[in-house]
Amino acid sequence: MNKDQHMAAAEELRRRAEEALAMQPPESPHGVEDTQNLLHELRVHQIELEMQNEELRAERAEIAADLERYAELYDLAPVGYFTLRRDSSIQQANLTGASLLGVLRSQINSRRFGSFVREESLPVFNEFLDKVFASRAKVSCEVALRGTDQPVWVNIEAVADESGQTCRLALLDITERRQAKLDPLTGLVNRRMFQDCLEHAIRKARRDGLPVALMLIDLDRFKEVNDTLGHDKGDILLIETARRISECVRESDTVARMGGDEFTVVLPELDDASTVERIAQNIITRLASLFQLGADSAYVSASIGIALYPNDATDTATLLKNADQAMYAAKNAGRNCFSYFTTALQVDAQNRMHLSHDLRNALSANQFKVYYQPIVELATGNIHKAEALIRWQHPERGMINPIQFIPLAEKSGLINEIDDWVFKKTANQVKHWRMNHDPAFQISVNKSPAQSRREEDRSETTWLNYLHDIELPGESIVIDMAEQTLLNSRQDITGKQFKSRFDGIQIAIDEFGTDYASLAYLKKLDIGYIKIDLPFVRNLEHDPDNLALCEAIIAMAQKLGLKVIAQGVETPAQRDLLARAGCDYAQGYLFSKPVPPEEFEALF
User: Max CA-CA distance within the chain?
Assistant: First the structure.
């Protein structure tokens, strides 16, 4: 018998008892007996009701305990739970949800959920919420929450209730999962995820018949920025690079950072070949603009290699390798440009690989030679200076031009050892010529911009110590430094600090006019020479603009007390034009090609 039946039976007994008592006099034996029976039944039902009440109390206690356990589980669940109103204001949240938002639960009631979403994810969230209330079906999305320190990425699933006035959200923290796919510095797709994206694009291309392009982007001279301004500034430049590249591509394209200063772009579903070139040129233009790095600034450029599926490769590994070869071709073509893959590049790549392998043994095998090219004083025709130029006498390939192996040495890290070897070889040579031919003779050596700042400081100390060891004064050496290297130097360096770094060694700005030199640096730092680059000299006779530019450089240098050396002089007309403009020195094939030291001595 259930509770309701017990209650009905008890009520019936009470009614019967009242009727019996009213009809029977107290002294009637039948009335007494009936009353006793009724009282007995009432006591039985009373006991049963008390037992029912005890069961109900136990059930209520069990339900209360369950509710408490469910509340604890609700708060301790690894998923954030929310109830939102239509305007996204929060009606209810569990502790995990509040933690994902980075606040206490008491601080979030009635606040709009959208206020906790990062600005870049807000459009996605607003569209998601509209779909939730419009469809009444389960909807999901991924957004970034503001977090306390770093963005918190969450996957949200939601469904509206029957009234359509509120919805229930479940939030799962996917930050670690996303970090496994994204580059932590730039937020771009990382190398691992890039492989998946490229494979997906190729699979889709096989079905749809539309080609895929892969761009490999390498920053030119990024290492100089990193080494001279510091890794923090280098990181800022990489973040800004990622932003600029992303702004140049289509919504369907994928931009990834492969590591270091190397980026890729996957361009699927290409129905117009001109799209690739347009995007590549836009990227080159954007990356050539000035980078503001806090109080510092720097210029870089980009070399882009492009490979196409299915024309150049049918798998991801080969496509990436071919894009890398095309990028290398862009660097060899002068940088700040893009190049398509060709089959001829495969041969070049194999040659570079063999050359790079041989390069590791060249120094110990004594295969390097130092040649010297005279620097002629234009006013007198005398030779008091020379430039030291390295050559590689390969046992099988013969004499190899530095244009072919210096980039390989920079990439492998061997450039530091090679620079040190050239410096010591040159120092001994200039000492010999000072003692036997010209006590004021001076030789220029090139300093690679690829050395790290720590290595740069080490090399300068090593070079100065070596000069002291062989008792050679600093003014016997000139160090040629690229204009970009000086431009990217720390802007807080003083002329005194710069001078003390080189302790008497003079500095020449090489390839002057090819970059964005700061005139303030020429005045501030202890620069001795400006070297006008070969392209300006080559067209002197036929291009009035080039002549005017050279004349302006020479006049500026004279005002600043600097000497000017013109490179690549090949004709008497070029020599005469430079002399009339007031140029101090010149070097080039008109006077002599670079020659071994024993041949150079015949020029004294």
Answer: 160
For residue 117, the cross-strand partners are 145
- Tell me the C-alpha to C-alpha distance, in Å, between residue 342 and each of 333, 350, 432, 522, 527: 14, 13, 49, 43, 44
For the stretch 461-476, pLDDT in tens is 788 899 999 999 999 9
Q: Which residue has the tokens 């590591």?
A: 259
CA dist 222 and 226 (Å) reads 6
Distance CA 158, CA 165 (A): 13
Q: Which residue has the tokens 């206690």?
A: 61
Q: How many CA atoms lie within 13 A of 202 on its CB side?
A: 21
CA distance 172 to 147: 14
Q: What is the pLDDT of residues 413-439, one digit of tens each?
A: 889 899 999 999 999 999 999 999 999
In what helix (H) or strand (E) does residue 221 lie, and over which residues does it extend?
none
| Predicted confidence (pLDDT) per residue in 263-282, tens digit | 999 999 998 878 999 999 99
Q: Can you tell me the distance from the alpha carbon of 274 to that of 481, in angstroms, rounded to the nearest whole number? A: 39
Q: Is the dihedral of CA 228, 229, 231, 235 positive or negative?
A: negative
DSSP 270-333: -S-THHHHHHHHHHHHHHTSPEEETTEEE--EEEEEEEEETTT-SSHHHHHHHHHHHHHHHHHT
Half-sphere exposure of 518 (CA within 13 A, CB side): 17
Q: What is the pLDDT of residues 475-505, one digit of tens each?
A: 999 999 877 666 655 444 555 445 545 667 8
Q: Structure pTM? A: 0.55
Q: Does residue 297 contact residue 217 with C-beta atoms inside 8 Å?
A: no
On whether the CB atoms of residues 337 and 228 are closer than 8 A, the answer is: no
pLDDT digit string (tens) for 519-576?
656 666 678 899 998 888 988 888 898 899 999 999 999 998 899 999 999 999 999 9
